[in-house]
Design brief:
Layout: H1 8-28, H2 36-41, H3 48-58, H4 62-65, H5 67-75, H6 80-102, H7 109-117, H8 119-152, H9 156-205, H10 207-217, H11 240-254, H12 269-289, H13 292-300, H14 302-306, H15 317-325, H16 331-368, H17 376-402, H18 409-430, H19 441-458, H20 465-482, H21 492-505
């Protein structure tokens, strides 16, 4: 189906040119890296507009155009709950958190955690987050392979390694500077193409009012409602409880210290606030333009979507409508746009994981073995090696997901977030606002949330996404707040550490 829509020379030429451009970016920025500070956070010299676009691109992936589009294809406006949560979280960043995050003066998230809670909590979180980013990047790459397979008819297991190795190459060679530059170029391409496809979709429906009329005419008012009745979808998805859980998850992520890393690359708190504002504006534009095309596909191209050959046909809806509406020569650009969304998330994840491994996990291991710490020059070499190793692991894990047909990519992501992401995130939100907790409070909160996650996983048939989310939140928050009772037993050294952390966080960078 897909190849008949292509002028192969033009479409494949566009894609090849794009991949070559990314490789060139890696070479161009290779010499910008003199030490690991340059490699992992561009020496804190990134401009607010580069960091803002990079932050925006790191928050989306091919999942937006496969799993999330599939949810929009099935349930219409319900999926917006995730993105409204993003916007609310970004508003908190603009008003309060973005300057605080930059003023932590760190390179990695575990470094922040060490200053707040100490080295033991730092080590636990370093390994937890390295595993989390590896799995999430694998899910993003899997989503990209779904789109590519639908658009080109290429085998998923061929697409995954080809695209994965391109990301490994430029992010390993150029570090954070290459990530920022590539994300900026990719962000421009992605937004232009998705806006164009939305305009073409609205032309087909006769405008926004025509879209609403077509939804009613096809009898989809109930399916496309913002909140559906319990039982309308499996696991009571897309109900108001589901929407509240989705909203809460996203607000918590954007307001936690885990979101601080993206602001480490700017010069100061003012630049961080501007970057957050740009991210907010781009995210707002995105939710306007990303989900009209898959809904239009449900109205006009349902047969083509069902014939896509995917195990979860709804996840091919964005690719199908791109093939149907875009003229020859632009289909390749749309594929490039979707490549951009995922590669920008993957490169940020790779850079972040390598930073945590080199700066947080490796030094204590070398100390225990009685080995000297690496020199500045060797740190840069080790960083590139670690970046490559994580990239290969991401490719292998994406292959594993590609063999799993039971769940769609949307279900994989939301359940992974509820099971693993939320237990880790909760204490990283609370620790920014609640001072008087002992050094072990984050670990107790993390453990309480993980216990609930484990119970829900063992009894998976009896737990849905919203139930997992609410119970994990309840357990994590309760454990953290109860730990306040033990603040009075904290050492003077630890109390001074906490005071220093909050003083630094609220002190502008000079």
């Amino acid at each position: 189906m897909a190849l008949e829509q292509f002028n192969p020379v033009i479409e494949y030429g566009v894609i090849a040119g794009y991949l070559i451009m990314l490789i060139v970016i890696g070479f161009v920025f290779k010499n910008f890296n003199k030490n690991d500070g340059d490699y992992f956070r561009s020496g804190s010299q990134g401009t607010w507009w580069m960091v803002g676009v990079s932050s925006f691109m790191a928050g989306i992936s091919a999942l937006t155009f496969t799993g999330n589009s599939g949810a929009a294809y099935q349930s219409g406006w319900s999926v917006l709950a995730f993105y409204i949560g993003n916007l609310v979280g970004l508003l908190f960043n603009i008003v309060y958190l973005a300057p605080w995050f930059r003023q932590m003066r760190a390179t990695t998230l575990p470094e922040v955690i060490r200053e707040r809670f100490g080295p033991i909590t730092q080590q636990v979180y370093a390994y937890v987050y390295m595993l989390m980013f590896l799995i999430m990047a694998s899910i993003w790459l899997f989503g990209l392979a779904i789109f590519s397979a639908t658009a080109f008819g290429l085998p998923i297991h061929l697409v995954i390694p080809v695209l994965g190795f391109v990301v490994i190459f430029y992010s390993t060679l150029g570090g954070k500077w290459a990530v920022l530059a590539a994300d900026f170029v990719q962000g421009v391409i992605m937004m232009v193409m998705t806006v164009l496809l939305t305009i073409l979709s609205l032309q087909l429906t006769g405008g926004f009012s025509g879209l609403l009329e077509a939804i009613s005419a096809k009898g989809l008012d109930a399916d496309f409602a913002m909140f559906n009745e319990p039982g309308s979808f499996p696991d009571n998805a897309y109900t108001w409880e589901w929407a509240l859980a989705a909203f809460t998850v996203q607000v918590a992520y954007f307001c936690s210290a885990a979101g601080a890393v993206k602001y480490f690359a700017v010069k100061d708190g003012k630049e961080a606030r501007k970057a957050a504002l740009l991210t907010f504006v781009l995210m707002l534009a995105g939710i306007i333009f990303w989900f009209i095309p898959p809904m239009t596909a449900r109205l006009f191209f349902e047969a083509e979507v069902l014939a896509s050959g995917m195990s979860k046909p709804a996840e091919a809806s964005f690719a199908v409508i791109s093939l149907q509406l875009l003229p020859s020569g632009l289909i390749g650009l749309m594929v490039v746009a979707i490549f951009s969304a995922t590669m920008s998330s993957m490169d940020a994840g790779l850079n972040m994981n390598a930073a945590m491994c080199v700066r947080d996990a490796l030094p204590p291991i070398l100390k225990r073995l009685g080995k000297p710490q690496p020199t500045e020059a060797s740190q840069l070499w080790i960083s590139r090696c670690v970046n490559s190793v994580f990239g290969v692991l991401i490719i292998a894990t994406a292959h594993y997901f590609a063999w799993q047909d039971e769940l769609g990519i949307f279900e994989i992501m939301v359940n992974f977030t509820a099971l693993v992401g939320m237990p880790a995130t909760i204490p990283l939100v609370l620790c920014l606002f609640i001072k008087r907790v002992p050094a072990w409070s984050a670990l107790v909160s993390l453990g309480a949330g993980m216990v609930v996650s484990a119970v829900s996983l063992i009894n998976a048939d009896n737990w849905n996404f919203q139930e997992r989310t609410f119970w994990v939140f309840a357990a994590g928050i309760t454990a953290f707040l109860l730990s306040r009772l033990f603040w009075k037993f904290s050492s003077v050294e630890y109390r001074d550490r906490v005071a220093s952390f909050f003083s630094k966080m609220h002190s502008p960078v000079d």
